[in-house]
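Hi support team,

I'm filing this because I wasn't sure whether my run with flavin-adenine dinucleotide finished correctly. The job status page said complete, but I'd like someone to confirm that the output block is well-formed before I use it downstream. Pasting the exact inputs I used:
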Amino acid sequence: MSHSTNSAITDSTAGAGSPAPVQPISLASSDAQHLESADVIIVGAGPSGSATAAYLAMAGLDVLLLEKAAFPREKVCGDGLTPRAVRELITLGIPTPAEDGWIKNKGLRIVGGGHRLELKWPDLASFPPYGLVRTRQDFDEILVRHAVKHGARLHESTNVTDPVLDERTGAIIGVRAKAMDPDGRPTGEDLIFRAPLVVAADGNSSRLSMSMNRPKRDDRPMGVAVRTYYTSPRHDDDYLESWLELWSKDSQTGKRVLLPGYGWIFGVGDGTSNVGLGILNTSAAFGKVDYKDILKRWVDTLPPEWTFNDETMTGPVRGAALPMGFNRQPHYDLGLLLVGDAGGMINPFNGEGIAYAMESGRLASEVIAQAFARQSEAGREKVLQSYPRVMKDALGGYYTLGRGFATMIGHPEVMRLAVKYGLPRTTMMKFLLKIMANLAEPHGGDAGDRLIHALSKMAPAA
Ligand SMILES: Cc1cc2nc3c(=O)[nH]c(=O)nc-3n(C[C@H](O)[C@H](O)[C@H](O)COP(=O)(O)OP(=O)(O)OC[C@H]3O[C@@H](n4cnc5c(N)ncnc54)[C@H](O)[C@@H]3O)c2cc1C
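And here is everything the job wrote out:
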């Protein structure tokens, strides 16, 4: 693959399988000190961007991965990986041995309504029977180094500010960026990168998608999650733990309201536990509650010997939004393809996003590799236009079910009844675990697996 540094902006971008030449463009680029070309630019090196970059580099494409931060960097997250996420790590070729700091878990422990239920991850052909926990500080660096090992060209401390557009078609053909210093301040160096395809992997607020006129859809569920770390004897728990009863107070009636969401305790294995909560926007209380306060009040009810208190807290409580159920679409148009949180790909059933970030990267890279093997620009565009359908076929029906679920549990009474009558029924909870963690066997499987697939197929794709 060829690439050019400080090359003329009208250079054609050579790529795998002789892609169509890029249209010459006039750019107000005289201020740019640095120009660089590639087959594909990926903006953002979280799990979606790094997975896409690694797969594309393996397919022989010249990939530029632009990241505004410098690794290692913190990312606000629960750090929990279900078997669906572990499957993606295995497919990508990332080893996860315990001696390298990966903490295995056997299943999910659910606490609520006076019950405490331990459910093992299902034993399936399609997913490994274990989950993992790893701080995002480590996780994201491991993934990005993997992409670089396979040939992706990473630029850290590179803050993408604007798309570069083809004046004739309005399609994106590159990005402008600012170089940042180690403290996250612009150095004053302006950069231009160009490629016939740009992947937005820049996370939940996806400034790049916004600047290409792809705002969030309000008819999709959204969540908010906050978390912190405590030193705790529970740091090496071999189950992920979730608490289904999070309460707030109705400001008018003063009555306690059960919120649609859950609190989690995930052992990180390094002496600390990641403790946090996520709440859906489908209840009337959403937006009116102080999430940090709810976290504190919930944590205060936990056994003191777990040592979740102000003295053992190792960092501030931090939070972010959870964009769910494909809340930003189309996933491809005008040269810009969306993966992970940029495309609103968090699972509305459980708030999990890493598996879907990596999965969308894998599916996107298959489409992109096929597109770049076409000889003509029209042929390439036709293949790229198939990506939204590929994503809908993979997850659309399931996300429509998740939307219904999110709306349902937004009613405090439904949530209350579900906790009261659902939790004591182990068989039903095993089935629910499969639905909520999206762990149904795609081929064959038991009656529950077949039911989940039938429902996902029947539901219109989100
Ligand atoms: C509190 C909380 C807890 C969570 N817990 C879990 C969990 O336990 N398990 C789970 O699976 N999911 C969890 N999630 C969701 C998960 O964090 C996301 O779904 C996941 O990070 C999405 O990956 P991504 O690569 O799409 O985006 P991100 O991880 O957000 O990565 C985006 C990257 O783009 C970079 N970037 C942004 N803008 C620019 C720019 N202009 N120029 C260059 N680079 C840019 C960012 O620096 C970042 O590195 C949680 C989320 C929150 C908020």
